[in-house]
């Protein structure tokens, strides 16, 4: 099984996380299971609460396009849709190997 390596920045520290396809459904679940961030991903992956926002640092990794819920949620919170995504809407598969994200904290 191929490794998927992600770099996640949170509270000034960068974590290199190794996972595998189908180990986690989404980036939100991976971050929740590997950190102690309170209130991260409150809606459980529906794309409405905006508590799992990440800033995309590595722009060269193509992500799936926004769905309607995600775009509306990002815009409702006055975030730049070119820079920010909801971690619950980023699926864990080989296409995101090497992705670098920063957990958004207000």
Span between termini: 37 Å
Morphology: globular
Task: Give me the count of strands.
Answer: 5
Beta-strand percentage range: 25-35%
Number of helices: 2
* Structural Rg: 13 Å
CATH architecture: Roll
CATH H level, superfamily name = Beta-grasp domain
Low-confidence stretches: none
CATH topology: Ubiquitin-like (UB roll)
Q: How would you write the strand order of the largest sheet?
A: 2-1-5-3-4
User: How many domain units?
Assistant: 1
Q: Which structural class fits the helix and strand makeup?
A: alpha+beta
Largest sheet: 5 strands, mixed
Q: Can you give the mean pLDDT?
A: 90
- Order of SSEs: EEHEHEE
CATH class: Alpha Beta
The helical percent reads 10-25%
Characterization of the model:
The protein has 106 residues and is α+β, with helices and mostly antiparallel strands. It has one domain: Beta-grasp domain (Ubiquitin-like (UB roll), Roll). Helices cover 15% and strands 25% of the residues. The chain is built from two helices and five strands. It has helices spanning 27-33, 68-76, and strands spanning 3-10, 13-20, 53-56, 84-86, 100-103. Strands 2-1-5-3-4 form a five-stranded mixed beta sheet. It is globular and about 40 Å long.
């Amino acid at each position: 099984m191929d490794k998927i390596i992600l770099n996640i920045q949170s509270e000034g520290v960068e974590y290199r996380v190794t996972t595998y396809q189908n180990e986690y459904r989404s980036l939100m679940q991976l971050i929740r299971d590997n950190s102690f961030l309170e209130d991260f991903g409150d809606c459980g992956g529906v794309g409405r609460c905006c508590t799992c926002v990440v800033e995309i640092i590595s722009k060269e990794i193509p992500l799936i396009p926004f769905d309607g819920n995600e775009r509306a949620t990002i815009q409702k919170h006055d975030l730049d849709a070119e820079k920010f995504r909801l971690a619950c809407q980023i699926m864990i598969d080989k296409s995101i190997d090497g992705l670098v994200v920063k957990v958004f904290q207000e």
